[in-house]
């Protein structure tokens, strides 16, 4: 691994090439910009929190335990 060889990665959001020699040169790694990083976060958020049904009151109640 050569010290002078820049690392090149493609931004996973917009596919733009990012060249950097050190990670400190790419604060939004592996994204090219803050915007792309936020886009990625938004995607994760949507996937994790998208619901396929309406929330019901019972979703917020403690489960009932039978008396032993
Ligand atoms: Zn990008």
Q: What is the terminal-to-terminal distance?
A: 65 Å
State the shape: elongated
Written as H for each helix and E for each strand, in order along the chain, the element string is EEH
What structural class results from the helix and strand content?
A: alpha+beta
Helix content: 10-25%
Strand content: 5-15%
Number of strands: 2
* Rg over C-alpha atoms, rounded to the nearest angstrom: 22 Å
Give an overview of the whole structure.
The protein is an alpha+beta fold and 68 residues long. It has a domain at 7-49: 2-Layer Sandwich (Erythroid Transcription Factor GATA-1, Chain A), CATH 3.30.50. Helix content is 24%, strand content 12%. It has one helix spanning 34-49, and strands at residues 7-10, 17-20. It is elongated. The mean pLDDT is 82. It binds zinc ion (ZN). The site of zinc ion has 8 residues, from loops.
What is the fold's blueprint, element by element?
Layout (H helix, E strand, L loop, with lengths): L6 E4 L6 E4 L13 H16 L19
Antiparallel strand pairs: 1-2
Bound molecules: zinc ion (ZN).
């Amino acid at each position: 691994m050569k010290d002078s060889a820049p690392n090149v990665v493609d931004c996973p959001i917009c596919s733009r090439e990012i060249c950097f020699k050190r990670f400190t040169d790419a604060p939004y790694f592996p994204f090219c910009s803050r915007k792309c990083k936020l886009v990625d976060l938004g995607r994760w958020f949507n996937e994790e929190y998208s619901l396929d049904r309406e929330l019901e009151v019972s979703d917020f109640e403690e489960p009932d335990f039978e008396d032993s």
